[in-house]
Amino acid sequence: MVTFGNNSVLARWFGAAALVIAMLALGGCGDMYGRSDFSGFVMGKSEQEVVKMVGKADTVDDSNPARVTWTYKGRTFDFEQQNKRDAKALVIFQRDSADGKLKVTEVKFES
After folding, report:
1. Could you give the angle at the alpha carbon of 111 between the alpha carbons of 61 and 65, nearest 5°?
2. Are 93 and 102 in contact (CB under 8 A)?
3. With helix as H, strand as E and coil as C, how does 63-79 read?
4. Sequential pLDDT tens for the chain (111 residues)
5. What is the C-alpha to C-alpha distance for residues 66 and 96, in angstroms, rounded to an integer?
6. What is the CATH number of domain 31-110?
7. Core-most of 19, 37, 45, 88, by most CB within 10 Å?
8. Can you give the pTM of this predicted structure?
9. What SS3 state is found at 108?
10. Please, are residues 31 and 73 in contact by the beta-carbon 8 Å criterion?
């Protein structure tokens, strides 16, 4: 028998369904960064440090070994545009003159 009290089967079922829906919705929100946070995490960092901070890039353009571009798709958003999600964040590495290793020198965002 289904009742509508605090301990009803129907109430527990709706509660469980709401919890599952909330978990699924929040599961898709991982690894999103505001532009300033993302830039702060990667600027001046090596390739290994960038992977540790924000994960692997979606694509890598290493056709010019002196200037390598990593592209992250849909991982950043712009606070100034009502948290609009960026289509891409481009992380640009250039060779450090002191040690010859690639370090992030620029970050660009594309809407």
Report:
1. 15
2. yes
3. CCCCEEEEEEECCEEEH
4. 555 555 676 667 666 655 545 444 444 456 899 999 999 999 999 999 999 999 999 999 999 999 999 999 999 999 999 999 999 999 999 999 999 999 999 999 999
5. 9
6. 3.30.1450.10
7. 45
8. 0.73
9. strand
10. no
- Three-class SS of residue 54? helix
- Tokens standing for 41? 């995490």
> CA 86, 87, 88 angle in degrees (round to 5)?
90
Tokens of 78: 């712009």
Nearest-angstrom CA–CA distance, 10 and 79: 41
Domain spans of the chain, in order of start: 1-30, 31-110
5: which strand partners? none
Residue with tokens 């599961």: 27
Say which residues have a Cβ less than 8 Å from residue 35's Cβ, sequence separation at least 6. 76, 77, 78, 79, 86, 89, 109
